[in-house]
């Protein structure tokens, strides 16, 4: 803990309270996002969805390896991939690195905090169903163009989940990692079992249902359709990078970065491909059409029914397993989203209030903001709608991080780093980053039309407007520095 010359309380380093396992299990929340996406994607795209999962997952694994190097090179930075932009773009000048890093962190927060309300909502669907919680009346959103009607029972349950998951996030990384370990074990094993369950009833499997280039009956293919959905996919599939958010809080960050990011990438490679494959192999396009919904609870319970028939044991087994996984994801979103804001406050880019920490070493203002924003989003959007405007932040941050890795390797290759990936990765990182930015610009524009429905393209513009809020936030920080008459504690360069 240190005191700023202005008298404000801030830290330049968060508590080193976990290791690679803690980073890995908390970061699993990114991988778990497949639960919410898989049903919608397979219902809309059939076998084409599996193809997109395979291609984009491979790029996501590549991103994890890039981040393993960056996290080990800058072990005292928190907030994951956007925080590294502050360092990787320094060859372009301090001003460029400051603003690219600041904008990336704000964009990353826009992408990550929304994970909490989405998965709280999905968990609430299971909880109300399994435990027979009264649904009550229907909550109508602000307008029919701004969200979907949810039952009051689901809404209240989701809000309670957010408030409960906030507690371990507030109490620091030690408790957060311990809590995440419990939930992680409670979700890893069942998720793997869900994938292998059909093999206990081989007659339920028909791999002929998987035709990688085939769309469901009645769906007309187009490049706008593919790009629009690919944009949605990146919000989920590339989220396996989430473990990087916590490397700065590991006791041995150089060692832990390599292990955690490698483990996250390999587990993501398995889950993001195997789960959609098995869902489609069991249900097929016809089965999804019969379900008529991409909601996670409908899809996974329909999947189990197709394998075992109407069986209460398996209904509860799958339901509770997915609740554990979704709760972990909520916790991760609240904790992870706050780290980037904290880091950029310390760097002098975003308002000083985001740099405040509580006595437990947790970014207090940033995590409170994440909670409040999550509760508000819970009131106004369905998952697919949230994906669109949220990913206008998230995909931007990820694409910038890939470009930054390439710049770092070309311009600062002599920089001392404990983990060093092959240099051939640099041009591919820049290529993937540029393609990601094009997908962000074009795929984001069409995503609402093809994933949500006609008349929702305004979500794209909402995402851009929220992204531009970085400008007044940065100007706010500049005004604070001017009033105090003291320089902001910028990050100190690492020695070569």
CATH homologous superfamily title: Amino acid/polyamine transporter I
What pattern of helices and strands is seen along the backbone?
EEHHHHHHEEHHHHHHHHHHH
Helices and strands: which structural class? mainly alpha
Here the CATH topology equals: Amino acid/polyamine transporter I
CATH architecture: Up-down Bundle
CATH class: Mainly Alpha
Notable features of this structure?
496 residues; mainly alpha; Amino acid/polyamine transporter I; two-stranded antiparallel ribbon; 17 helices; 4 strands; globular; disordered N terminus; disordered C terminus
Question: What are the SSEs and their pairings?
Answer:
Elements: E1 2-3, E2 9-10, H1 20-32, H2 34-45, H3 47-73, H4 81-88, H5 94-112, H6 115-130, E3 138-139, E4 150-151, H7 152-170, H8 173-196, H9 223-237, H10 253-291, H11 296-308, H12 312-346, H13 364-380, H14 383-411, H15 425-452, H16 458-468, H17 470-484
Antiparallel strand pairs: 1-2, 3-4
Helix pairs in contact: 1-8, 1-10, 1-12, 2-3, 2-10, 3-9, 3-10, 4-5, 4-14, 5-12, 5-14, 6-7, 6-12, 6-13, 7-12, 7-13, 8-10, 8-12, 9-14, 9-15, 10-11, 11-12, 12-13, 14-15, 14-16, 15-16
Can you put this structure into words, describing what you see?
With 496 residues, the chain is mainly α. The chain has a single domain (15-484), classed as Amino acid/polyamine transporter I, CATH 1.20.1740.10. It is 69% helix and 2% strand. The chain has helices spanning 20-32, 34-45, 47-73, 81-88, 94-112, 115-130, 152-170, 173-196, 223-237, 253-291, 296-308, 312-346, 364-380, 383-411, 425-452, 458-468, 470-484, and strands at residues 2-3, 9-10, 138-139, 150-151. It has a two-stranded antiparallel sheet with strand order 1-2. The protein has a two-stranded antiparallel ribbon with strand order 3-4. A hairpin with a 5-residue loop joins β1 and β2. α9 packs across α15.
